[in-house]
Amino acid sequence: MRPAEGANGFYFSMFSHMNRSESGPYEMVRGRENVYELGNIVSYKGQKVMPMWGDKYCGQINGSDSSIFPPIKEGNVPKKLYTFEPDICRSVYVDLVGKKEIFNISAYYYEISESAFAAKSANPNNRCFCKKNWSANHDGCLLMGLLNLMPCQGAPAIASLPHFFLGSEELLEYFGSGIKPDKEKHNTYVYIDPFNIELRQIDTVTQLKRVPTGLFPMLWLEEVCRLWIGRPENVLIMPEV
What does the sequence similarity comment in the record state about its family (predicted)? Predict the structure, then answer.
């Protein structure tokens, strides 16, 4: 953040520290001994457990980096698929829904699990993600669908799915309109990491003197793959961020 030239206000960048940066290094399984472990992450930046959560369950690194998955064996289809997301310093998972067809090709279809970002009341295993930060006036355990990123990013950001999809309805009460979770729009990508800021009144900052306290979406990120529509043997996967 820096002051604007010749005007009131300031410039703010959420990810300027990541310009020209690389993720990793990762240590991953090559699948030579067991192809069904292909792509599983062994360590990230030399760490086998993410230390900022202070707990082995919340800090465990499961699955791949989502760029590769092991083959699925018929008759032993995994009920969950895990990916490790370094931007939020944790692994997340999707649940098996069933089989679907895409371009006349049968595939297993997974959706983001509601329990992944569930409040501790709905998923007690998530209690180790409760971390009190500089602005919290509670025990650090957030509402359904939220993840405190202060331990991960060192900034007062809170992650959620777009439009607080799968989140507590209480989050929507802050907005008169414009925020409306929709499964068709917000549940189709491999993974999405939006960032929210907890707004509070600060008398010493002109722009924040009259704002009501609440959670305000700053941005969202999408990582998707586009499939070229053509003959199956000529399918081209185009990553897009």
Answer: Belongs to the CD36 family.
pTM (two decimals): 0.74
From the list 201, 214, 208, 218, the residue with the least C-alpha distance to 155 is 218
- Tell me the C-alpha distance between 11 and 196, whole Å: 17
Rounded distance between C-alpha atoms, residue 206 and residue 229, angstroms:
52
Return the pLDDT at 235.
47
Give the dihedral sign, CA 206/148/169/164. Answer: positive
Handedness of CA 164, 166, 172, 176 (dihedral sign): positive
* DSSP H helix total and E strand total for the chain: 3, 14
Nearest Cα residue to 88 out of 13, 192, 179: 192
Q: What is the pLDDT of residues 40-58, one digit of tens each?
A: 999 999 999 999 999 999 9
Query: Could you give the angle at the alpha carbon of 111 between the alpha carbons of 78 and 183, nearest 5°?
Result: 170
DSSP state of 103: T
**Phi/psi at 151 (5° precision):** -65, -30
Domain limits for position 72: 2-240
- In total, how many domains does the chain have? 1
Cα–Cα distance, 241 to 218 (Å, whole number): 17
Q: Which residues of the chain have pLDDT under 50?
A: 188-194, 234-241
